[in-house]
Amino acid sequence: MTILAVFNQKGGVGKTTTSLNLLAAIARRGKRPTGVDLDPQGHLSHVFGTQPRAADDTMYGFFARQRPIAEIARVSSSGVVMCPAHMELSKLDAMLGKGFNVVTRLRQALRTRDAVTGPVVIDCCPLLNVLSLNAVFACDLLLVPVSADYLAVQGAKEVERALNALEPVFRQRLPRRYVITRFDMRRRMSAEVVEEMARSFRTEEVCITRIRENVKLAESPAAGLDVFRHAPESRGARDYEELADELVGAGFLR
User: Fold this and answer.
1) DSSP 27-47
2) Residue 228: which residues within 8 A CB-CB, separation 6 or more?
């Protein structure tokens, strides 16, 4: 089992789009992945049609009521298992704090025998809070989408600084990959972002695959679909297939 967390401290960079389409790419390989939605906005849960009315039937119930992951998980119409979010998740920082036992709760649950069987993709909110810290401590790989704009790169740098500060706790360098999204070679800003990424991060930690700007990719969540079902021949589908292939080749997806 592999656990991927998708996070950047800047909103609007394609975290949910990346989570959605990586889950779909994994499912296309014959596996049944599990999505964990830790964003109180619940966009990933909405796309998969797994938004329960009661907060206790979501990841809020896991954190606030100690409900097992298996009780919260539900199979979506696309076959992906989802652990949905709820707006009440926004209250957890005040309720739980950030003690070590709190921020490692998801890690312990996901790694319990038979809790989940396939790869896991965690969609995070754009804040370094108790939810995203749970994702960071749980994951085998942190995937950081960086849209081709200056503020997204700054957000990625903040993530890098936070991860470096946590290294004494991990006692190792947490594996991470930065992936450029909304890339458009016709825009000067895209080229500048590529150059800044090369200066700011380790070469081997920046994905070769770039997710290009694509109308079909942008449309698919509104249709309640991943890009492979919405527009299987689109550039967006090809790019996310290539990203999954790159992560497989690097040993992060099995």
Assistant:
1) HHTT---EEEEE-TT-HHHHH
2) 21, 24, 25, 28, 237, 240, 241
How many CB atoms lie under 10 A from the CB of residue 97?
11
Cα–Cα distance, 38 to 131 (Å, whole number): 6
Q: What is the CA radius of gyration of the chain?
A: 17
Is 49 within 8 Å of 84 (Cβ atoms)?
no
Helix (H) or strand (E) holding 87: none
| Cβ atoms of 63 and 158 closer than 8 Å | no
Please name each of the domains of the chain with its CATH number: 3-243 (3.40.50.300)
Spatial contact of 6 and 122, defined as CB atoms under 8 Å apart: yes
pTM assigned to the model: 0.95
Q: Shortest CA distance to 162 belongs to which of 135, 185, 123, 195?
A: 135
pLDDT in tens, the chain (254 residues): 799 999 998 888 899 999 999 999 999 998 899 999 999 999 999 999 888 889 999 999 999 999 999 999 998 887 899 999 999 999 998 888 778 889 999 999 998 877 788 899 999 999 989 999 999 999 999 999 999 999 999 999 999 999 999 989 888 899 999 999 999 989 999 999 999 999 999 999 999 999 999 999 999 998 889 999 999 999 999 999 999 999 999 999 87
